[in-house]
Every structure is written in structure tokens, then in C-alpha cells.
Amino acid sequence: MIEILSTTELTRARRTGTLVGDILQTLRSRTTVGTNLLDIDDWTREMITEAGAQSCYVDYAPSFGRGPFGHYVCTAVNDAVLHGMPHDHTLADGDLLSLDLAVSLDGVAADSAISFVVGDSRPPESVAMIDTTERALQAGIDAAGPGARIGDISHAIGSVLREAGYSINTDFGGHGIGSTMHQDPHVPNTGRPGRGMVLRPGLLLALEPWVMADTDELVTDPDGWTLRSATGCRTAHSEHTIAVTADGVEVLTRAGGASA
User: Fold this and answer.
1) Binding site for a divalent metal cation: which residues?
2) Are 230 and 218 within 8 A, CB to CB?
3) Residue 37: pLDDT above 80?
4) What pTM was computed for the model?
5) Structural class in CATH, domain 7-251
6) I need a surface site. Which of 29, 108, 111, 167 has the fewest CB within 10 A?
7) Would you kindly state where each structural domain of the chain is located, as residue ranges?
8) Strand, helix or coil for residue 85
């Protein structure tokens, strides 16, 4: 299913996006050495509930997971990269943490992810990997707009990732979003320009470049959800929900509100 949002629905999408961005930044500011992943999940639940919103994850049960997910935020540490299930784990200095959050408010969903290093340590390889996913995300945003194609976005993202020396897994990537969290079209993190669906005003896309330091192969934890690098290397993940407009694109999930 591909949805094209009306002007009224886009206004609601901006509110949802702001909520997601603000929650993620609050979680980042609260997370320190000694924070437990279950505390992060509890903080997320509290903020979603206070906002009168709904989690897109608690009842999420796709074919690839062992659902329902049953938690409010994905918490992926070090070699975990996607669908990280919160569990009783205490963060240490230098851990690389990725938080992925999807929320629905007033019937419209938004999805975003951030990666950061916990504590005072700044391992150069981890910082560089996070920076690469953020640059790739911005390249994808810059390639979007009315009349552009999905392949233009995928090519822009993949070019940044490959130039930095990372291989690209295409099993999971970006996606359409609207009244539900995961919709068509699929937005791979690599592709050929000029190919795929033409972008129209009112289309919402969640763009999410992610990489693993020395592999493109994933393994699944016994929890049936958490995806890790096959080699145990570190990983990073960045994501924003964007809206295609008549004039270009808006990034909906920045903390503090949508921006061009």
C-alpha cells in the first residue's frame, strides 16, 4: 500500500514527527554509563503515553520477527543494528547504542533512529561509522523531492556508504509510512538513479541507512528479533521520516519540529 497524505494529514504528520524526534533526543540526554536498556524502554513508554500517542512496536508482529515485539523502542548495542529488543543490560562507557522509535499520533506514524556512543569514550571507528550513516541519510534527503525517483535516493545513500568503505545489506532499508509504520515503496540503501517510483507531494518516506563495520551479513538473536553483525563487529543506524512537498522535502522527525 502506498499512501499520499492530504494537507490536513501532513499537518498531523508534522506533530508526530516532532514527538518522535523529541523523545529520541530526550532518551539520548538521559542515557549514561550504567543506564539499563529496560529503563530506556520505560522512559519511552511514559513519554508516548503522556503525549496521548501509541507505540508502533508493542503489537508489531511481522513475518520476520517472533512477535509481538512487546516493547516501545528498539535498543541495539554495539554489534546489534536492527530490531534490538530491550533486555536487562547495563550500558558501559564506549558502548555504541542505536535507538529506533516509531510512534502513531492522531492516525499518522513517524519513524526515526539515532546512533551515539555512551559515556566519555569516543572510539574513532565508531564515530566515523555513525558520521557515515548520518551523511548518507542527508544525501538521501537531498536527492528526494517531487519528480525524483526512489532509485535516486537509494543511489545517493549507497554512494556515501560505499565511498566510506562499507558493504551494504539490502534485506532491510527505508520504506513508505503513513497511517501505518511500514508501507510501500521499499527504499533500498543502494540502487540505480532514474529507476523506481516517481515521488509525489504527500508521500512520506522513512529513510534509514545502516552499516556494519566489516560485513553485510546479519544473524538473529534467540529472542527472534535482534539482528546483529555476523562477525561481531560494531554497527550504526540513522533514520528520518521525510515528507515530499510541492517545493521539495520536509524532515519531520528532527527534534523541535520539521525542517527542509
Assistant:
1) 100, 111, 175, 208, 239
2) yes
3) yes
4) 0.96
5) alpha beta
6) 29
7) 7-251
8) coil
